[in-house]
Write a structure and sequence with these properties.
The protein is an alpha/beta fold. It contains 16 helices and 16 strands. The structure holds 2-deoxy-6-O-sulfo-2-(sulfoamino)-alpha-D-glucopyranose and calcium ion. Calcium ion binds next to loops.
Length: 564
């Protein structure tokens, strides 16, 4: 199927209609709340100090924590399909992936589905989106947009907006700061007589985790703890956990990911060559001053590393430490950016009547099971951070244990704006759990479905259910290229295309067997999901119960079952 690019709506520069605003910000006599939705790309809850992990205590996030202190922290927030474009489609439509069409990364989205911002617009809201859009259609339902190209770049990235004639134009600066700058521009220039909804979608901390110049050496002397299940050998699990290609030990690239540029010059394998090309492309974007600062930090570090000739577990530990440090450096800039937006709201008297949401398009592995990346239904990527502040309806310091999912965001925003949710929207408004309690009729389980195989990282297709205590996962699908529908046929020239062709040529994809296999976890006794209980004595009843639940989801939601 062809990758569909459609221009869904023409947005106007906000300056065109903001000129008749009355008085700054008190113009909000309209009681409907403003909405600021901040979504990072691949931000794990493990690296937000409000969530309390050991890792985050060593690299705190005071501004994101401030939101939690003044609002509600969701302890059990999840996505439906742990990947960027599908998650963004869930956000915009309030629908599961098979309902909105965006099941895989590069293919899908039924543009006839309503985006919640279109409904807000119709109801008189002024809407904007800045940063990583990453949908397979142009922004629709926005008065203002200023978006990055595809995944975006960290240094001096290109953006496009209605004022750039459809072209992506290079801007000087770091992606996180530029995205914030354009967000504040929207807030400054908006029509102050109308309520607004602004989506701030950061590129960071997406792979390859390139820190901002001022944070290059941050945390250098800290030794970060490794997760207890880092050395998982996948015994007792289905083959999917062992055949993925997202392990820090085997798959994290010394050149692109860990910035050992020196190894790239002598790239021996085709894989190293791709890795070198990717890193070089990013470094070549820098100004000479930025490049100098970069080299000043990484060159001596790399010299020491190359000199040490690390092998085996020592090499893997080095990779882990340096991955975590670069990732956390990117988070530091994100935390600053959140602080800037909160200060703006304080200064402009917007705090009380604005709901501020902080989340990520999915979770991320910080070494759990030995991994980076996401995609799997195991907790760290299935879960996502979710924090909301709305002084009018949420008491400071609230915590929620309710099972919530990214299909709930659109219904929440619509309900807050007093707009009736379209009947077909699957999610529920989170207002029902804003007080930290769980109403009797709130959901007791969640459905998950990942479809993107064969693709980057080779995670097999799977769906499953999670209750408060248990999780049942079903891995399924044809191996080899039989099931290929997506990246493999996508644009030649992309990194995805090159890497997948290479993996296929090396037999990784062609040799893959079909899979039809289950896993069952007791999250209370085994929160790290190390002990697959499926088929074990004593678990017959709970297995049956969960299987019925899963079958009901598939049936009631009309999930296509061609490959089960
Ligand atoms: C790129 C990354 C992958 C990542 C996908 C999807 N490779 O392909 O590691 O899983 O994006 O990420 S890279 O070498 O090009 O960085 S997502 O957040 O957009 O879903
Ligand atoms: Ca992502």
């Amino acid at each position: 199927m062809k990758h569909v690019k459609k221009l869904c709506a023409l947005a106007l520069p906000i300056a065109l209609y903001s000129c008749n605003s009355k008085s700054p910000d008190q113009g909000n006599e309209n009681e409907r709340p403003n909405i600021i939705y901040i979504m990072c790309d691949d931000h794990s809850y493990q690296t937000i100090s409000a969530y309390g992990s050991q890792l985050s205590k060593l690299a705190p996030t005071p501004n994101i924590d401030r939101l939690a202190d003044e609002g509600i922290l969701f302890q059990k927030a999840f996505v439906e399909n742990s990947l960027s474009t599908p998650s963004r489609a869930c956000l915009m439509t309030g629908l599961y992936s098979h309902q909105n069409g965006q099941r895989q990364l590069a293919e899908g989205i039924d543009t006839s589905k309503v985006f919640f911002t279109e409904l807000l617009q119709d109801a008189g809201y002024q809407t904007g989106v800045v940063g990583k859009w990453h949908m397979s259609c142009e922004p629709k339902g926005f008065d203002f947009y200023h978006i990055l190209d595809d995944q975006g770049q960290y240094y001096n990235p290109t953006f496009k907006g209605p004022d750039t004639n459809g072209e992506y134009i290079r801007e000087e600066g770091y992606a996180t700061s530029l995205t914030t700058k354009h967000a504040l521009r929207f807030l400054d220039e908006r029509n102050k007589d109308k309520p607004f909804c602004l989506l701030i979608h950061h590129k960071a901390p997406h792979r390859n985790w390139m820190p901002e110049e001022k944070y290059l050496g941050l945390y250098e002397d800290i030794e970060f703890p490794m997760p207890e299940n880092f050395w998982d050998d996948y015994e007792g699990k289905c083959s999917a956990s062992a055949t993925q290609k997202m392990s820090i030990g085997k798959d994290m690239e010394l050149v692109q990911d860990l910035k050992v540029e020196e190894l790239g010059a002598a790239a021996a394998t085709p894989y190293d060559k791709i890795s070198y090309r990717s890193l070089k492309g990013e470094l070549d974007r820098m100004t000479p001053e930025e490049r100098e600062a970069w080299d000043k930090f990484y060159k001596p570090r790399n010299a020491k590393f190359l000199d040490a000739k690390l092998e085996g577990q020592e090499l893997i530990k080095w990779k882990y430490q340096n991955y975590i440090k670069d990732y956390l450096r990117c988070i530091k800039s994100i935390d600053d950016a959140v602080g800037e937006v909160l200060n703006y709201l304080d200064k402009n008297n917007l705090k009380e009547n604005t709901i501020v949401v902080y989340t990520s398009d999915q979770g991320f592995y910080m070494g759990e099971h030995g991994w980076f990346d996401k995609r799997f239904m195991y907790e760290e990527s299935f879960r996502t951070p979710l924090i909301m502040r709305y002084p009018k309806a949420i008491k400071a310091g609230t915590k929620s244990e309710a099972l919530v999912q990214n299909i709930d965001y659109a219904p929440t925003f619509l309900s807050l704006a007093g707009i009736e949710k379209p009947e077909e929207m699957s999610g529920n408004s989170l207002e029902a759990v804003f007080d930290g309690e769980k109403p009797a009729d709130w959901r007791n389980s969640l459905y998950y479905h990942y479809y993107d195989y064969p693709a980057f990282h080779l995670v097999r297709k799977h769906d499953g259910v999670r209750t408060e205590r248990y999780k049942l996962i079903h891995f399924y699908g044809q191996g080899g290229m039989k099931g290929a529908t997506t990246h493999y046929q996508t644009t030649p020239g992309t990194r995805e295309y090159r890497v997948l062709h290479m993996l296929n040529d090396a037999g990784y994809i062609t040799d893959a067997p079909d899979i039809n296999c289950n896993e069952l976890y007791d999250l209370q006794n085994d929160p790290q999901e190390m002990n697959n209980l499926y088929g074990k004595d004593g678990y017959e009843d709970i297995t049956k119960e969960l299987q019925t639940l899963l079958d009901n989801y598939r049936k009631n939601l009309n999930v296509p079952q061609d490959e089960y």
